[in-house]
Amino acid sequence: MESIPYIAIHGHRGARGLRPENTLPAFATALSIGVDALELDIAITADQKVVIAHDRLLNPALLRRPDGQRYPDGTTRIADMTLHDLQTLDCGRLDPDSDYARDWPQQQAVDGAWIPELRELVALVHKAKNSTVLFNIEIKTSPLTPWESWPVEAYVDRLLEEIYLLGIDRRSLLQSFDWRALQRVQHLAPGIPTGYLSVQQPWFNSVEAARNCNSPWLAGLKKSHTIDLPEWVHQAGGSYWAPYFGDINGELIARTHAKGLRLAVWSVNREVDQQRMLDLGPNMIITDYPDRLRRLLQDRSIALATPTPIGSR
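and the corresponding structure tokens:
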């Protein structure tokens, strides 16, 4: 895998703060800004197509039917839809009455955007003549709701098959909250770096159950009652630990690096938080606003990825 510069910008879902998430326009925007990696989420359709989507169930806040009406509910699995049916949906404009729209007021609508296949993103990167950007691919299986997606083994197997078919294995990183999936990746594709996601917040805690029993997210990898995520990721064979940025401090970063691991923080969007993370010194920062982070890196004379606007070369 190509080396990752310090500190690397990972465009979260492309550039969710600026364009509709996980769409080709969002990824094109990130490439034109200049990022080191494109962060994206993967789902697999009923006809075994590898598509880029965050939610296992169709999200009405993001999707419109061909007649322009909002998709009616959030109970339909992507795993039950064919690629053809999935790509009839328009994901280029948020429901203006949704919490999602209030969260992303600067997101510019792109009517007609669709849920792309992974291969379409790879083609976009080739069109931009970008030979260095990495693909930070998040595996979206859940041990709490396993029925919402393909089984973890079949999901990982199909994803790896596609990655090798597209020839991006040396430019890919695979990360997940579901550490079972990462263990399978390491078994089947030991050359692909794995990132162990975690969060310890009131709105989601992938770790806390490990105080008294094995958290379902951690694949049974808890080794003690004392929470020690850098050690757990190290023992699991991970390449990097990826905690929520609000869970991190300088001491944890130092311990992570002492284990020989890299560290990625997510999703760092406010400039004040980006500045604090830059002071702490992670290896990678995942952000919905790569433009903001790039300006701050430039102010600190930190190396930057070359922008590659589509059609610029």
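(Above: one complete record from the training split.) The longest strand covers residues 37-44.
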